[in-house]
Every structure is written in C-alpha cells, then in structure tokens.
Fold this sequence. Notes:
The structure is a homodimer of 86-residue chains. Chain A has a single domain, classed as Phosphoribosylformylglycinamidine synthase subunit PurS (Mth169, Chain: A, 2-Layer Sandwich). Chain A has 2 helices and 3 strands, in the order βαβαβ. Chain A has helices spanning 17-25, 53-64; strands spanning 3-10, 34-47, 70-76. Chain A has a 3-stranded antiparallel sheet with strand order 2-1-3. The A-B interface holds A 1, 7-9, 19, 22, 25-26, 29, 31, 33-49, 51, 55, 57, 59, 62-64, 71-74, 81, 83-86 and B 1, 7-9, 19, 22, 25-26, 29, 31, 33-49, 51, 55, 57, 59, 62-64, 71-74, 81, 83-86.
Amino acid sequence: xxxxxxDVMLKPEILDPQxxxxxxxxxxxxxxxxASVRIGRRIELEFTGEPDLDRVRELxxxxxxxxxxxxxxxxxxxxxxxxVPS
Amino acid sequence: xxxxxxDVMLKPEILDPQxxxxxxxxxxxxxxxxASVRIGRRIELEFTGEPDLDRVRELxxxxxxxxxxxxxxxxxxxxxxxxVPS
Lengths: 86, 86
C-alpha cells in the first residue's frame, strides 16, 4: 500500500527544549561537532488507494500540525524511506 | 552547515496509540482511505563539520532511539528535505 510521510518540525524561530536537551547531552558522549538539534514528528500514513497529496496537505494543516508554530512537508515514501533496522 | 536526519519509528509489531488516535479521527474529517497511521520522531542534527554517519548511528542507538522497541534510519538531509512551509 502506498505510504505518505508527513514531517512536522517546529518553525526555526520557535525554541525547541527537547532538541536543546539532546544537544546538551552530546558532549558527555564525546560528540562536540553538533551545532544544533531539532526534534519533530514523522507521521506515516498508509493509503488503501492512490493518495492525493493536496488532500494530505489539507489534513496536515487541520489535524497533524499546528501551522502557527510548526512547518510540515508531505511526500510519497520511497522504498528506501521505510524505517528499517540499521 | 550539513544536516543529518534521524527518523525514529516504533517497530511494526509495537502498538502505536498515538497513530491509532489519529487514524480514528480521520473519518470525521471525511478521510476514509487511510489504512494505518504511524507516528515517530524526526531528529535533525546540524554539524559544524562533515558528519560521520556511522558515528551518528552509534549516537542514535545510545541516545536518540530505544533499540528494543524502535527502528531508526540515518541519512544526510538533501536541500529539498528541510521542512519548509508548504
């Protein structure tokens, strides 16, 4: 079944406390070349038929994201995109 | 600065109550061709220098994901990947 991925991220100007917490933890793991960390949501929608990306954008705008503080992107998931164990 | 995207999703066999809640809400918005919804985390790491993806995988394994219940993928963010307002 075709899958659509909606990535929702806080707008750049919005403070990201979760990302900040991860960024602060990195030096203790010996990672000191990370300038910033941003954390958002990845939403995978599996469709029974051919998905209409415009309708998914509308859906993202109404239900999946808060357009006041978040940006989102919508795309068809490619075969390589599924989160396979790496 | 180069950005790496780590996508963390629950393993397929793990129940996803968040995704279930969204899936249940869709018919009320007139969307009835969605078979399933899975919700995970998208983590964007901005590097000061050239990122080493193997090291990022190690980092994801230790800090960003819970390997017992989650799968993750690591990739360099392409120009089109940034969450721009759509």
